[in-house]
Amino acid sequence: MGDVMRELQLKARDHGRLPMQWNKSHNAGFSAEGTQLWMTINRDYVDWNVASQADDSNSVLANWRKMLSLRKEYIYLLTYSSYTPLCEGDTGKRS
């Protein structure tokens, strides 16, 4: 059974999904101390967490908040409209 669980861990879609790192406390504030999480927390949770970024206007958290704010402000534009991506040097001609 251990081999099966190991294979699931290697092939699972959860590699990009980790418990939220809320603060620098045990389990990164995601769950109470003494709770055994089934997913590991990044080792750098003491430095990279919501609490440590909350007051930093240049943090990853602050940038996410800005992006979400723009998404809410321009919801119709971002949801129902279309766009054509332009690359640098693009002449607009298509072959």
UniProtKB/TrEMBL annotation:
Q: Which InterPro entries match?
A: GH, GH13_cat_dom
Is Magnesium included in the keywords of this UniProt record?
Answer: no
Q: Which SUPFAM superfamilies match?
A: (Trans)glycosidases (SSF51445)
Q: Where is the Glycosyl hydrolase family 13 catalytic domain?
A: 6-77
Work out whether the entry's keyword set contains Hydrolase.
yes
Q: Which domain of life is it from?
A: Eukaryota
Which UniProt keywords are present, listed alphabetically? Hydrolase
Q: Which residues cross the membrane?
A: none
Q: What GO molecular function terms would the record report?
A: hydrolase activity
GO BP, sorted A to Z: carbohydrate metabolic process
What Pfam families does the record tag this protein with? Alpha-amylase (PF00128)
Protein name per UniProt:
Glycoside hydrolase family 13 protein
Give the source lineage, highest ranks first.
Eukaryota, Fungi, Dikarya, Ascomycota, Pezizomycotina
